[in-house]
Structures are given as structure tokens and as C-alpha cells.
Write a structure and sequence with these properties.
CATH topology of the largest domain: Rossmann fold
CATH architecture of the largest domain: 3-Layer(aba) Sandwich
Low-confidence stretches: 18-22
Structural class: alpha/beta
Radius of gyration: 28 Å
Largest sheet: 9 strands, mixed
Shape: elongated
Strand content: 25-35%
Distance between the termini: 111 Å
Amino acid sequence: MKKKSILAITVSVLLILVAIAAGLSAVYTVSSVKTQFSVYSEAGREECKTLQATLDGYAGKSILFLDLEDIRGEVDKYPCLKVEEVKKSYPKTVELTVTERIERYAIERTGEDGKVFYSVLDENGIYLYDKEQNVNRLDGAPNILIEGLPAVSLAVGQVATGAYTEELFTTIAAFREDDENVRLNLVSVAFEKGASDEATTRFTLMMQEGTRIEINNLTALVEEKAKVAFERYFTLEDEDKMFGVITVNDDRITGGFNVSYTIQRDL
């Protein structure tokens, strides 16, 4: 008799728990995934439509057991989209904010077949994907071309790493406090290294008007050198920008550096 009572109590408790779970499931079921998109390109808008259709498929799932990393994973399938925030808004809504990564750099590379292609990075140096042509998906203009860097390590969604990548991003960030419109002025950055030592390293920056900026010795004061070089560039008259060469060299006497400007016309 005692065993029957215990069994009855156990069954009753289980039925109550099932009823509670069913009730919670009815109340805490995802009714919608609300996404706030901030995108700039037509390609980005199309990706957002496709993404939202996928996210709508989460309706009907339990919000209690929903793993938000699954939501992030859906967004991560689109290299140019990133999650700024994702959260559960009880009892029935998932909310997230998604923005578009802006293409900025294109690293020129050569495949095993000998064909040139471009690895595209965003404004923070995060690797997005490879392209056959250096064309920005926002406006069709070229991305800033990066040439001559030693082996660069690339993983989708991660900042590009390798020798002199940090110095590269530091140099470009010095342009008007990392102006978002830097592509309007800067065409390319080429890395060079002499045969002797690291002090013979150089970045050569080509500007839209024709100005060439040479920053020598990338082992010392790179940010300071870049800032002064860009300041000098912005003081030039339009005509001078067409033929000017700005050179930054170390000053072995003071331990600092010197900035010079010369006119160089091709004959």
C-alpha cells in the first residue's frame, strides 16, 4: 500500500511538472526575431533579406532553451554582416542589431594557377573574402591596394596578421583620425624591405592626385611619422599634390625624424 502511495505521488508530481513545462512552453515560445539592420550597399540589403527569412524560422522555438550563439552563427554566414547586440526579450521576442562591415583594403595575391586575386579586409583589418577584381561592393571604386607584404595570415572574421600588418593599419589610421573616406584619397600602400636590416623597411603610399608618401624605417615611430606625413600632404596646393613626393626619414642625430617635400615630374 505504501509503495502504491509513493508511486501515485510520483506520477502526480510528474504530471504537474509536465503541465508546468507545457504552460511555460506556451508562454515562452519565440513569436518573432526582430532585427535592426544598418547596411549601406545593395548587396548588404539583399543579404539582410535572406538572413531575416532564416531568422524567422526560429519562431515557435522555446525562448528558454534558445542558444543565442545559434543566432550569431546565422549572421556569421555573411562575412560582411556582424552582430552588434543580440538578446532575449521575454517572454516571446529575440532582438538583435546587425551592421555591415565596410570593405576598405585589398591585398594583392597570386594563386597556384598564377592568376592574381584580392583578399578583401574591412576598415578594421578583418578578413572578409577573396575577389577576382579589386572592386568595392558599396560604390564600385577600388579598395586601397596593399602590395608587397610578407606572408599574411587570413581567417574569415579575424584581423589579418603577419609581419608589418600592425604597422600598416597604424599608418593608415593616422589619416585624419581614421577618416572613413580615406579611400577617396589613398590609392595604394606598397611595402619594401632592403637587403640589410629591418631599418631599411618602407611604406610607399600613393594618393589619388599623384602625391607619393614614403615612410622609412617601420621599426620606429611609425604612427608619429604617418601623422606628420599626412599633415604635410594636406597643406599642399592641388597642383603640388599632382607631382609631390613627401619623404620621412630618421634623424640619426636627434633620434627623431625629418619630413621633406620635393617636386618630381616625369619627363
